[in-house]
Amino acid sequence: MRLLSVNIDHIATLRQARRENFPDPVQAATLAELGGADGITVHLRQDQRHINFRDVRLLRQTIKTELTVEAAPVTSTVNFLRRIKPAQVTLVPEVVTEITTTKGLDVIKQKRALQRIVASLKRSGVRVCIFVEPDPDQIKSAAEIGAQVVELNTDLYSKDLGRRDLQLRRLKIAAEAARTSGLTVHVGHGLNYSNVVPILEENIAQGFSIGFAIIARAVFVGLKEAVFEMKRIIQEVRT
Ligand code: PXP
């Protein structure tokens, strides 16, 4: 069973562009669910530049599917999320000046600190995913510190058009390493309506975290339809 979690950060980005109270990501989540989303994802950045605490609280109370919150492994955010208890927290590295997340978390480098954070989230009943590069060593470390899911970073795959086959092979090897370590495999970053197809054909992942391409298409066809189209691809492409 393949699952699509729709990242709605950019609804909040649009709201914040005018410091208005619309468009509301809570409303967007409902429409995404009507379009067939299996989950809703938001990135709660420390500077709350798009999604804020209010959004996360309301989404937790209102959505009917699974809420995933992407967050940096910092104590204040983690403590907030332990109280909110989304279905999943995806730990990501965060650089204040970046436009979007670009790299996976370096699990090997911060193994001890991350292990404590993973354990505390799990004690609160939250499933923990770590966003990593498709690197078997990082994946092994993620399993060792107790993560249940890894999200493989598809940023390079989506950009390195001249070496797409190589990047796809890297993802495939990484996914096999993750499954061998007992981890569930998700993918995300830079995926769109066409580049997701080879990943589906290779049966690399069970979970798909997709935002920008869907929100961009929604401007022309509406959010429900944009989600519906992506969901259909994810369900129908055969391996
Ligand atoms: N996964 C992670 C960890 C991300 O940070 C993002 C972007 O917020 C996504 C998936 C979704 O990426 P995109 O918006 O390019 O689909």
Summarize the structure.
The protein is of the alpha/beta class and 239 residues long.
What would your notes on this structure say?
With 239 residues, the protein is an alpha/beta fold. The protein has one domain (3-236): TIM Barrel, CATH 3.20.20.70. Helices cover 47% and strands 17% of the residues. It is built from eleven helices and eight strands. It has an eight-stranded parallel barrel, surrounded by eight helices. Helix 2 (25-34) packs parallel to helix 3 (53-62) and helix 6 (136-144) runs parallel beside helix 8. The longest helix is centred in the last third of the chain and has 17 residues, at 164-180. It is globular and about 45 Å long. Bound molecules: pyridoxine-5'-phosphate. Pyridoxine-5'-phosphate (PXP) binds next to strand 8 and helix 10.
Tell me the strand order in the biggest sheet.
1-2-3-4-5-6-7-8
Structural class: alpha/beta
Low-confidence stretches: none
Order of helices and strands: EHHEHEHEHEHEHHEHEHH
Shape: globular
Radius of gyration: 17 Å
